[in-house]
Amino acid sequence: MSAAGEGGPERPPREDGPDPLGLRPRLLHRDGMILILDKPAGIAVHKGPKGGMVLEDGFDALRFGLPEAPALAHRLDRDTSGCLVLGRHRKALARMGTLFSEGRVEKTYWAVVEGGPAEDAGTVSAPLRKRDVARGWHMVVDAAGGQPSVTDWRVLGRSAGLTWLELKPHTGRTHQLRVHCAHLGCPILGDRIYGRAPANGPPLHLHARAVSIPWAKGKPPIMATAPVPGHMLAALGRCGFSG
Predict the structure, then answer these.
(1) Between 81 and which of 41, 44, 132, 233 could a Cys-Cys bridge form, CB atoms 3.0 to 4.6 Å apart?
(2) Active-site option among 31, 38, 77, 191
């Protein structure tokens, strides 16, 4: 885990009390401005209408001596795992907001999809909009009324009935990667909304593998890579992933 900030390495921080969600060992990067966390699959990042424990409930354990807990710089779906960026204070969050809105943060996802595209690489440009208020975050492709949504994709491996894809979104629409994979004709394995997964089927096989943040002018970007979650190892292994 990195722990260097703009002003040099941080001093060893004091502990901030209990870590009920076990987030400290999941840190991939820490400096004076931002944290990058390996988010576990199956937990929402923030409060929703259904209530229950969410990832934000554990952020107080990540203060590392600061008076306030860090906050989300962006979002990942409940069932998506991997690199999640947090800002440690208001200044950092404002700067991260600008970087994300300008599309300067490079995000790389891995997905295992059902079937697979015939080609080995390509780009999906399919505008998205909410289907209706009643369906909440359910999104649909709408060429006329949707917001611009662009994803680059590349095949990393194949097996009978499955394909391992690298996905790089240029925009950050809700459920963008899930809808775009379904639009390609190869929904993500375990997707119960946009795919064919039964209620008792496998978990969603979508992982925020890496992130690159151009933080300090004239210096290399801050980068982090999240390890593959256990629930994806078998399917990725079938497609050629060896760890």
Answers:
(1) 41
(2) 77
